[in-house]
Amino acid sequence: MVKPANLPAESHDRESVDVIPGGTVFKGDHESGVITNSGQTTVKIIDIRTTTVELQLNDDIVKGLNAPVGEKTLPTMLLYDEAGLKEFEAITYVDDYYLTNAEIEVLSTYAEEIASRVPNGALLIELGSGNLRKVNILLQALEAAKKNVDYFALDLSRPELERTFANISQSDFKYVRCFGLHGTYDDGKAWLESNEEVRSRPRFILWLGSSVGNFEREEAKEFLKQWRETVIRPGTKDRMLIAFDSCNDAAKVWLAYNDRQLVTERFIMNGLNNANNILGRKVFDLSDWAYIGEYDVVYDRHQAFYESRKELVIPLAKPVKIEKGEKVRVERSYKFSYEQSVAMFEGAGLAIGTSWGQPGGEYALHLLHNPAAKTGLEPKKYAKAPCPDINEWEELWKLWDLVTLGMVRKDQYLTKPISLRNPILFYLGHIPTFLDVQVSRTADLPPTEPAHYRDIFQRGIDPDVDDPTKCHNHSTIPDTWPKLNDVLDFCGRVRDRVRAIYKNKENSSVRIQRGLWLGFEHEVMHLETLMYMLLQHDLTVPPAGVPEPDFRAQFLLDSTKANEGGETWIKIPGQKLVLGTKDCEQEGGFFTWDNEKPVLESSVASFEAFSRPITNGEYASYLKGIKSTAYPKSWTTDGRNLNTNVVAGVNRDDPSPAAFNGLFVKTVFGPVPLTYAQYWPVIASYDELSGCAKWAGGRLPTREELQVIYNHTETIKKDLEAKKLAAMIDAVNGHLSMDGVHITPPDLSALAGKADMSGANDMFANMVGANASFRRWHPTSVFGKVCGRGDGGAWEWSSTVLEQWDGFKAMELYPEYTADFFDTKHNVVLGASWATHSRIAGRKTFVNWYQRNYEFAWCTGRLVRDLAATGTD
Ligand SMILES: C[S@@+](CC[C@H](N)C(=O)[O-])C[C@H]1O[C@@H](n2cnc3c(N)ncnc32)[C@H](O)[C@@H]1O
Fold first, then answer.
1. Helix segments in 504-646, DSSP class H
2. What is the pTM assigned to this prediction?
């Protein structure tokens, strides 16, 4: 495959297709109607440049040098001229530069899995391709998988494209066709929109080499956001595969950029030669400058500087004075913790579908997608006002449709995935009917037709598990349900009614807003109910547009954290606490359900809580310990995925205790071997989990204890943020004494605003980083952190029975909401699952409940114990 250079130096002039922006890029193959490389053995390089990089560089050099002492910079792009790129390639072979080997290890290990997630017919665009050694691993895997894809190496350096493509012959590939794109990232973005054929294909953007680390963190987020907005289309097969270096070993990182063979030094120093070329004369004498690399522990980044060996005057049109020892920064390489990368994706509106990494995740590739519906995870995004705005409705409807229309096979609407509940079709009618009841009642409107839908769709069933003949009042169950299309038409009319209310600004009264809010949160709750019902259905279709997770790779990534043994018992002191909130709806406050009011003062005695919920792995050991095969309903012994005929199994190389044999955890993507789901919270009924807790020498927490645990985890989160902020402020204040190393002051006001945000409105929690609101479509590992609300993707059972309390007042618009369940059979549940919308997941006063022996809801349990039992206090 890799050949000695065989491309004549001038050949690109003949082979390339130079295009005017927006013009025809490819020669069309009229027979097949597909993009073609016209049977050439050499690779075409397409000129997509729209700007002159050199001119921009010239300006940036002058601007950067005119900055005050300590803030001078030269543009990083200076490093990537022909000579620099050759040096960079040499760096990638240096052992000290661990990044390339790490990426090769990940790509080689998972090439097949990555290739399987590239859609047939996709355009693969690699940003800043440089040397093609690494991507070649993936191209080979795509070829082996017989994927018809077109690979485009995008780089601003044409000589680099020519040089590296000289080592690749198109004739080696039958399915993969290779092209070069000569231009900048921005040119690439514009080119993707430039012609219909390009637009019509799924896109798979590769951004390897941890190049994202060369951007400032905020710039990187903006960059990803722009690509999400213009390139990665929502709810489609478009993807971005991005590499992140998470190494936090300062010495190792420093050595990577200050290698013992001095290759990096040559690479960086060449930037000054390039600056001379760009400026058209020798402005920098290399002997006046030295390369200095520094690792900045506060910001987790390496910085490359030119340090002047003596006082200098740089002879620009307006000469620039340089002090002896002054530093001019040319490159930054940021490192990202997993949490930082997740926060960046969140800010950019992208979600992780799956990840591949080295054991421990020091270097990882994340597969990102643009979710069809976006529900924010920060209070300022998901709880902007008491009443959801129309955009929030539209996003919720997208999710509802994705689930109800995309995940249910046409022939399955009349089936009952859970025999105690109504058939799936009922829920498609129930949601708009309930909304219409609230809207027509509060806005004084007649029912949307057909009005008789109210007789069958207004209220669902949730019978007594022990005696299904016992059930609260509910709508009549008809002999024949209406036709799906009629129900969908009705739903469309109700949605239009809601749209009209917003459009005509008829939603100004608190009463109408309350009706809308009620309909919104009701739909949110049913979305989750429907999801846990569909999980029990063998014929559920995986969600469209969401990448299929690589559960095995994620398990291997999580194993290091799980084996580190960081989880622990946390001592929680006795304390007073407040449950619930006061009713302030009339004063413009947030709406709440009847069971969130009034304010209740309570207290807990000191106790110890485990830092995470009980896992599937632990539950399997418990069942083995008590010699039981009474598996929870979230598990199955059948590894078949009826949607794909795939039989899931455990790779022979992976450690798998006997207790896990033959067991699988149900997911919407099919059954996952329990081995790979062993770090996830176990989902089971209260009765099952309290048995396990007792066996393990503990118990499940009371509602108050669980609330205190969540308060505690929030304090930890805020403390961490405050510590980070303090370190940054120290760094900024102390920069003059820091050996002349200037640290750009961060935007402290923005950071302070962020830290404040969860506290600003005490009602809502910052859920960034939690597994809630459809960020993932399955539970996730609970190791590696003290778990709070929504971490791991399951609600948590409390031992507190749902009972009427002093001051409880049923709601006027929906009096049965809680009151129908004061039968002492239901327990309070707190937190959130992965399918809980942020408005509910993040609202700290929200209370959920289920029957103690109900096996389907997505609730887990965590161990607590009394302090007296441990002999400590
Ligand atoms: C650090 S190298 C990484 C190369 C390769 N992706 C890897 O992982 O080894 C960065 C590459 O991106 C290219 N590059 C840098 N900025 C660019 C831009 N704005 N547009 C296009 N290419 C760029 C450079 O020419 C260089 O080949």
1. 510-535, 551-564, 616-625
2. 0.90
